[in-house]
Every structure is written in structure tokens, then in C-alpha cells.
Amino acid sequence: MTNRSKLCNSFLFDRRTIAALAGTLAMPFVLAQSVTPVEAVVVSASRSAQTRFDAPAAIDVIQVDPFTTMSPLVNLSELLGSVPGLQVRERQNFAQDLQISVRGFGTRSTFGVRGVRILVDGIPATMPDGQGQAATANLAAASRIEVLRGPMAQLYGNAAGGVVQIFTKNPPRGAEPMTGSVTAGVGADGQRQLGAAIAGGNDVIGGTFDVSTYSTDGYRDHSAAERTQFSGKVVVRPSAATTITGLVGYFNQPESQDPLGLTRAAFEQNPRQVIPGALLFDTRKTIEQQQVGVVVEHKLGGNDTLNARVYSGTRQVFQTLSFKGDGATQSGGVIDLDRNYAGLGLNWNHTMKVNDLPLSWTLGVEADNLRELRRGFVNNNGTPGALKRDEKDTARNLDFFGQLDWTFSPQWRATAGVRASRVRLGVDDHFGADDSGKVEFNKTSPVAGLVWSVADNINLYANLGKGFETPTLAESAYSTGGAGPNLSLRPSTSTQVELGAKIKSGRHAIDLAVFDARSNDEIVPTQTSNGRSIFQNVDGVQRRGIESSWQARWDNKLTTRVAYTWLDASFRKAYSTSPDTRIAAGNRLPGAPEHSLYTEAAYQWNDAVSAAVEMRAESKVYVNDVNSAAAPGYAVLNARTGYAFKAGAAKLFLFGRIDNLLDKQYAGSVIVNDSNGRFYEAAAGRRLFVGLRVAL
Q: Global pTM?
């Protein structure tokens, strides 16, 4: 049997599995009785509070209770599986962070987060060049996560294929008591977790502080990692009109071994193994980041509100790659990167009424600055050798934006916005031949939308917008032949359209969105080897698809969720990569599955015992532009349970989680276009984690 036949058969099997499991969870749908669930409040779509149902875009909100969540809260992948259109891949590789993509934007990133903008309490975790980090968000302090998709995301600027916003919990107010908690957990593959939190305050000032440590021996060989996180939030209310929030964060990952990818043969033989080169060159990464920020909200009156933010931080990265890097045109196999970044933002929101119907608008400005010292050294079997690269890189943006939200009749609401962005990238070379250079990008991103409230429980909407993504400093770092940075890369531009429906009926909430996004100057790898990629621009990339989700609450005990995504992401024009490989028109984008499905059933007994079963499934994923190889489709079951009880004045929560319940071997993520054919990153087998949280 050929590899192609094996892949097709694997997908057919998983498709039948998907259908059977979806049918099992969908059966209770016909038994509904009338109970209206509470609607979550979101702010991502229009920068002002509104219910998720009324938001004029595809947006989901995940409520997080760090005390009763039946999961260790280490990665976003634990929480966001139920969001359609969103892929969060846990790579079993803490050296490279999660792979996050929205509607096919960001699938091609080999490290970090690309094509998706990430914010924490309004502070960007995405740099001015569009490169973001997900791991630095402390999920133990989170209260909710909003995921915005589609044209409206363009109003957040560079890299906005989608927006993921994490909001942390606020400290107690008024008569609420001071609280403290501790957490401990252990799991398979040497997982160990400890954490502590304290929160207290009154109507004038309050604070909450969380610290946690996590370490693992790793599912794969040479994949051990450890990290420590601290986050603090102080809220001061000097008057009824003013709220000042101070934020501090610390992230330290002193060890994260990098097992690299595997070839298909090696993956099938032993998914836990590591290639010899990773051991020879001791591939690994260390990260340390510190950040502080202040957010101020001031009400000028009943109709006007000012929001301001300022932040600053540093990030130090040391990484060893799986090659020596001592060639004449090479810049070393060891990367030493020191970053300093800062930014500020101000927006003014005004609400009023026209013909006794609401109208609101927002005007704002944002400026962010990134400076980094990038050095490269010869990799002498894991030890830095001779200097091969020494440069100072900069990325800056200055953006102005405006947004209007107008209910011009009882059933119709219009939304319009525009964002003007200027992004500057610069390289100041201090090694050998002077390869310094600068480039500036100026782009305008307009958005327009319309919402029709057909009935109290039915909203239909349509959005249209233009967006862009600049090349990141990492994408611009290397050029073919090693002759300095690649400053000839152009920003990718996209035109996106979306049609959607939101329906709530009794116990049920149903969302449906149809979208189409067409990009020119898409930034794609022309060559990827040993963790280093060189990029180019291509035209004619299309991402279109359907997102659907259904949530139901049956009797305040049983809840079910189903989320399905069909994504057709492909090259509509042929192009060539290095060395002289032709990519045919119609080939699918690597890393973007055509079908994705999530189903969940959760049950609560007597406010004490809770349990849930979830199924995640994907069709096959191509691993290169040529579409000559693919990771097979899969369907996996996960289960979690929790037990809440009291001991004197203490509240306790005992929880357990089993991932990959049936111990299926599959590729949890892929490294697209790897020149060595090491595309596959194995997901963990059956994996248990148990933990205990104690609160006073």
C-alpha cells in the first residue's frame, strides 16, 4: 500500500469515528426544554462591553475559574479546543511555544505565534513586527479568554488574522474577604506543578498575586523543560470615575530542550525518539522575560470614557540549533537575543443617542517600540564558539484608528472602522560586511459591517475588511546564500468577508459563520532547515470555510458542546521555492486541516463532583507546499473530573485529567517545509495529571 493510500485510509477511518462520536453527543438535542443560559460579556469586537450574542463578529469567550478548572492550566491548548476556526497545537516542545492559528492564518509559523494578535489585560503580547508569544500568559490568574475572528480583527493592526485576548481576575472589593490558595499537581512524564495565590482589597485598592512553577521530563527524549511564572495586578480606584490598574509579570524558562521534528519513518518507528543531531548540538532554549504596565480608565462624564495604557519589558533568549553554523555565509548555530520593548496607547470612547437609538464611536492611537541585540555564535556541540553575527534590530509602529457603532433602526446596526499603520524595521549590522538596512511599511485597514436583529433570539451579520501582516524581524533575519537580512520582503495583504448567524433558543446557542480571505504577497518559507527559515512573497492564497458551534445546557447539570470547522486553504497561483521546486496551483497550505471537530459532554453532581469527556479530531494535514507528504488525520478522547469539598475553613478541589485516553499515536503538530523532511512532532500518548487546590 502506498503512503498516499495509507493517509487516505487513515482519514476515512477518522472521519467515520468523528461522525459516530458527534452523533452520540448530538442525540440529546431533540430533548430540549426552555432555559435561557447567561450570555457572556465581551469587549474585543467593538472595544466596549456588550454581550457575545450582540457582537457584530465571530467571537467566542471562554470563562476560566482557576480554582475549579479540571486541568493544570499550563497551556492555552487545554482551554480553547471548543472555539471553531481556532487551532492551538501543543507541540510537546516548550522550546518552540504553541502553534496558534485562526482560519489558516499562522499555520506556517515554525516557532512562536504568527498571524494572530495576543493581548493580556489590554497589553500586547505581540511585538510591533507581528511576532507573539503565548506561553508568557499566566493562566492560573485568568478569568476569561476572548477569541475574535474575521474582518473585525483587522482593527487591532499588524498580524491580526485573529485576536486572542486574555483577561486576568480582579482583586476582591468591598466586603469580599481576602483569599489565599495553594496548588500542587503531578503527572505522567515527570510533570510537577506548584503554585500559590493571594488576593485582597477594598473599594479603593486591591491586589492579586499568583506564582507557579512547572517542570516536566518530557514525553519525547530530550524534551525536558521547567519554568516559573509570576503575575501581579493592583487595582486602585481614587474616585468613582477613575480606575488605575498596575500589572507586573515575570516568566523564567531556564531549561527547555528541543527534540526537533522526526521523519515519517522515525515517527512511525518510535515517536518518543530524538534525532542524533539534537543530542550532538544540545538543542535547547532558555527564556527570561520581565514586564510592567499601567492601564487607566477615566470617565469624563456619562457619555465619554478615556482608556490609556503604557508598558515596558525585557526578554532574553538563548538558543542552540542543530548545526555548527561556521560557514563563510552562515551566522552561527547559537542565537543570543536580548530584547527591550515598550509601548503606549490612548483611546476615547463616546456614546450618545440619535433618534433615541444608541450610537458610539472610538478614536485611538497606539505606538510600540522593540529593540533587540541579536548575536550568533558557532555551535561547538552546544557551547557558543566564535562570533558570527552581531547586530541591533528595531521594530516600531505608530497606528491611528477609529470605529463607529450605530443602531440606526431597532433591528439594524452598522459598524465601520479604519486603522492607519506605519511599521518600521531596521538592522544595524556590526559584524563583517555592513548589511545594515531599513524598511518602512504604511498600510490602511478599513472594516465595515452590518447586523440585522431578525428577532430577539436571532442575529444575522456581514463584515468586510482589509488587513496586513508585515514580515517579522525573525522572518527578515536570513536571506538565501546568507548575505545579510532579507529586507526585500513585503507585507502580506488580505481582503476578508464574513457572513454569520447567531441563534439562541431556550437551552441552546448556535453560531454559524461563512468566510473568505484572499491574500497577496503571502509570506511563505522558501527554505527551512535545522530550525532556520528563509522566506519569500507569493500571490494568490485563499482561505475560505465554514465555522459552526452549538452549546446546550440541559438541566443545570449536563452541558454539551460541538464545534466544527471546514477550511479550504490553498494556493490559487503556482510559484517556485528554493531550490527550483514548483508549487502547483490548487495545492493546500501546509499545517491547515480541512476538517476540525470538537465535542464535549460535561456533568455536575450536587455541586461537588464534576466530570467531562471531550473528543478532538482533525483530518490529515499537509506538511509542505508540494503536498507530497501529510500527517494522518486523527480523533482522540480526553477525560477530566473534579471533586470539591471542605475541611474546616478551607475549600479544596481535587482534579484529574487524562489526555489521549485510547493511547493513539498521532502527530500533534507539524514543522512545515522542513528541508530535512523532519516534519512530524509527536503528541503524547495516554497521559494522566492529578492536582489539588486548597483555598482559604
A: 0.91
